[in-house]
Fold:
Amino acid sequence: MTDHPHEPRGRKGNQGNLAIREMEIGDLAAVYALGEALFTAERWPTLYRTWDPYELAVHFASDSEMCLVAAIDDKVAGFAVGTMLEKHGSAWTYGHLLWLGVDPTAGRKGIGSRLTAHLQEVFIELGARMILVDTDAENTPAIDFFKRAGFDDDSEHVYLSKNLTYDPQYIAHHRTGRVADRPGGEPVARKRAAQLRADRRQAQHAQHGPHHHDKPE
Structure:
């Protein structure tokens, strides 16, 4: 999912040296901050929901060659994060461009195009036969950008959401402190969920009796 990666017209921006390179651990804070500035809840709520430091760190740790930055005089001016998708039993391997963002103050340097082209080279080297990208249906600049870059065959996909904060079950859990979104609550929630699953299996075992899978003598 991408913010519109085109550079605004009429703005010269930074005229330093531009380099496209693999993301380094020292870039993570700057990349995340840029993404936070671009993927706001008001403009692109879906991008906002999926953009978080944990996801960025996971992809950097597992797919570092597909995490790129555009740097102007060593300052991050844009980024691209991708991953590979393989379907079992299929000859098709996909490169998925997850996030693409460009600092709007960087000027018209073709940063989005250069990041996309560089990531495409990486995808090809890794065996991808197709590149996938998605963005908000109203993000016309991004859609136009990708069409100019040769992407087509667009298809609509409907996302539905449900606000759980008004759900009685959520409210009950919140009151008893059993939600993972409280500080330090995720490990506790995971432990309780595992215990609930174990209790449920034990109850089913007691109700239906043991299942013997041994072959007859």
Remarks:
- The chain has seven helices and five strands.
- Strands lie at 18-22, 67-72, 75-86, 93-102, 130-133.
- Confidence is low (pLDDT under 50) at residues 6-15, 210-217.
